[in-house]
């Protein structure tokens, strides 16, 4: 479907936030789902996947990092430009599992899809945000616990260290929701198992078709006979952490 860009602005070095108007996506999307955007460039055939960062009314927000020629083209789009977008796609977070309190843990660009989740859960969540150095979206969250590896803001160290310190004094939660680098997700999974708290993780993988046909984004999931592959784009991107097999 065609949508009009409202703005496409720089948040931090190499990181942008885009907002576009699309009532169909806004009304049906759930936290953790994503959209697929087509590039208006003959040299780029595949669409690019972007997590839905937030929804306000009929406006859909995404946050992305320029990592190659495709996202560089998208970063040059301006207010009023039209984009071809498909969505919402994938399986998002199960917010029905939160009865009293959820812990939301994000690292790097994985912070982006957790904004919509935190707003859906309102005052039922405690948010942990981890950055290497440059901050973005912090002001969009309500009273987040911020960690930076360089110590320029908040807790100095990894976001998982802040999570462990928090749980040592307050070890009760219905569930942990997490999105970020694989190393962070592995650590969050270990912490959740130690405290006996269920955990859902949103995986970040390269995608081709975005609908489960090409199998480019397969991940290993536990099964009765060992493990099997599942598609991050169609079966995920959100999975129960206990099911995911993270390669060493």
UniProtKB/TrEMBL annotation:
Pathway: Pyrimidine metabolism; UMP biosynthesis via de novo pathway; orotate from (S)-dihydroorotate (NAD(+) route): step 1/1. Residues 1-95 form the FAD-binding FR-type domain. [2Fe-2S] cluster binds at residues 209, 214, 217, 233. Its cofactor is [2Fe-2S] cluster; FAD. The keyword Chloroplast does not apply. Binds 1 [2Fe-2S] cluster per subunit. Binds 1 FAD per subunit. This is Dihydroorotate dehydrogenase B (NAD(+)), electron transfer subunit. It comes from Caldanaerobius fijiensis DSM 17918.
